[in-house]
Protein 1
Amino acid sequence: MAVYTHVSAEALAAFLHRYDVGALVSVKGIAEGVENSNYLVDTDAARFILTLYEKRVAADDLPFFMALLDHLAARGLAVPPAISDRDGAVIQTLEGRPACLIRFLPGVSVSHPTPAQAQAAAAAMGDMHAALADFRRTRVNSMGIATWRPLLDKCGRDLDTIRPGLFDRIDTALATVEQAWPLGLPVSAIHADLFPDNVLMHGDSVTGLIDFYFACTDVRAYDVAVMHSAWTFDARGENPDAAVGAALLAGYTAAFGLSDAERAALPLLARGACIRFLLSRAWDWLHTPADALVMRKDPLAYLRRLDWYEAHPEAFA
Ligand SMILES: Nc1ncnc2c1ncn2[C@@H]1O[C@H](COP(=O)(O)OP(=O)(O)O)[C@@H](O)[C@H]1O
Ligand SMILES: N[C@@H](CCOP(=O)(O)O)C(=O)O
């Protein structure tokens, strides 16, 4: 359960008092998520998400994320903008953490996406990239390729406690990816973490894209590669579903398009995505206290994906 910071009833009431959102009726910690503390807040007027930013979200980056959400919402995309208080402020401090009150979006995230759901979600990513073509703010990817080797070195040989030989395995895979990383592909604002749990759906329709807290300026096709790695395998990183992968590429291509150079780069970008998520999960695996109210995610599920992408360079043909 991702609740790192407890919010007292008194602090929440004082916080809500800043807004024109009605009176507090109930508040519950949200089990899903690993990065931030999230609460479901009901007032007598509406339902909201309260997020307190933890771990990897820097307070200085919040204006970028909020501007991105406003930009997408203004273009009609189903993303949840933060609510302004009576003075027009969206970023507050609550229990000592940066915090925002966010519009609640309906829908559920699917655990086992069908091809139709993957197609719709990838089309939503394509629509998002189209809408971001004129978004001018930039943010360096705090989990981009330049950070992978320092993170590998920080994890060090502790990786071998997760799986013997893991450090050397990733060291070698990363060297290959670094050496071949494509230069010159289109760069734009991207989501960078569009996993199934960050897409809200009703049946086969997308009702919301959420969790933009890794959004950044990076290779646009990398967003597609991240999505492919997250959507086409089961939770253990096994049983890749070719129909889901094909539907995802079809959905994205129909909505936005992929150049030949972007498509050709996808196998390598996907291997990079595997290293990125393996390393962040491994760091959390090694450093999350045993009593923390959060479900650690399995780093080896991304090793299995990496094995598969290395063995199947034809996956995106
Ligand atoms: N705007 C929203 N509308 C509806 N549910 C949301 C919204 N934002 C977050 N949630 C719920 O909270 C969960 C955790 O949010 P998320 O942003 O993914 O957390 P984290 O950043 O910690 O991973 C989501 O899986 C979803 O169930
Ligand atoms: N998607 C990442 C972890 C980030 O968590 P999220 O709940 O914010 O998507 C992973 O699965 O490793």
Protein 2
Amino acid sequence: MFMISKEFHFSASHVLDRLPSWHQCARMHGHNYVVVLELSARAEDLTEAGFVRDYRDLDPFKKWLDDTLDDRHLNEALGETISPSAENLAKWIFDAWVEQIPELAAVRVSETPKTWAVYRPD
Ligand SMILES: Nc1nc2c(c(=O)[nH]1)N=C([C@H](O)[C@H](O)COP(=O)(O)OP(=O)(O)OP(=O)(O)O)CN2
Ligand SMILES: [Zn+2]
């Protein structure tokens, strides 16, 4: 099995309004988010060029991230029914892209240099 990944960046605000009011993250604040797409393929499924998938094929994802999430308020971008935690954001991105990128195996989301959430379906 081969695994490749590519990193993307965007900045956004959010409010974790399901948290108790004393929690600092219940206030509006922002992050410089890092998103990593992980793609996997079996050895026999590598392309002629030896790729799981050409990194260049991920250019539309970068444009979508810029258009959909960059400089946005995540509570609005994801919809009010989804709490915009890093966990939910990772799954939301995975669900939005797995049809277009069938090799997608996991989405990683970082809000701060010390934290990561990963969505990897069973
Ligand atoms: N499991 C999760 N916990 C928290 C999330 C999350 O998405 N998933 N999000 C937040 C806040 O949005 C934000 O990320 C704050 O995180 P925190 O680690 O508390 O950030 P700090 O920089 O303030 O942490 P320090 O320890 O002071 O460096 C909270 N929890
Ligand atoms: Zn936050």
